Give the backbone structure.
Amino acid sequence: MKFSVITLFPEMVEVPLSASMVGRAREKGIVQLELLSLRDFCEGKHRVADDAPFGGGGGMVLKAEPIVKAVKMAKMGQPDAKVIFLGPQGRTLDHTMVMGLLKESGFILICGHYEGVDQRALDSVVDEEISIGDYVLSGGEYAACVFVDALTRQLPGVLGDEDSAKHDSFYDGLLDFPHYTRPAEGAEGKVPEVLMSGNHEEVAKWRRQQALLATLKKRPDLIEKAELSNEEKAYIQQQRGQL
Ligand code: 9D3
């Protein structure tokens, strides 16, 4: 999967996406990352990327032409890519959207900017606008990192079998169960007995119950949508009674 990112601040995207899982996925050739510096598509001695808004008001607006030119350049490398504008007014990214986007061969990501972007650029080249949540960022660069990370970890061969994306929170609509490692007993307390028992069936049952409890306490909204057995639904009802 190829990601072409169009931004005024390429290093804000390049650095985080060189480390850890995405960095390794790039080394393995599972994902390709291309950065297009918007500055390279700007004209004139000073390569100005923005200008004052028509109609007045504060701030500046990113010009349409450099963005359109950058998208055209990126499209030469991946003609079938989906063009996404990362902006605060877009549809909010969630797990279901991530899974749906995996069918694409690649993406051209345009980073929004607090200043705003000339609407004509958006109207002429963008397939979809996506936000990463209801809070204000100063630009789309970190959103681009979030987008690339969330998709990359779902691609075959990126994660080992052990921490496969199948085990992710949200995969079955529940939050994670608690984790413990050595020492079994320390100043911070003891590890739950069942985890030391070696009884894999009991451990699995305990973890599932803990996941249900954590979800009920921290994200009750997720319980409604989770895939639960009848036995689990009954357990939830019983726990609700005790809250
Ligand atoms: C003054 C009105 N604001 C719109 C709600 C203007 C505005 C704020 C922040 C315009 C652009 C931005 C910059 N944000 C992004 O580019 C952005 C973003 C975000 O702010 N929140 C969540 N997801 C994203 S993706 C890109």
Remarks:
- Residues 198 and 204 are 11 Å apart (CA to CA).
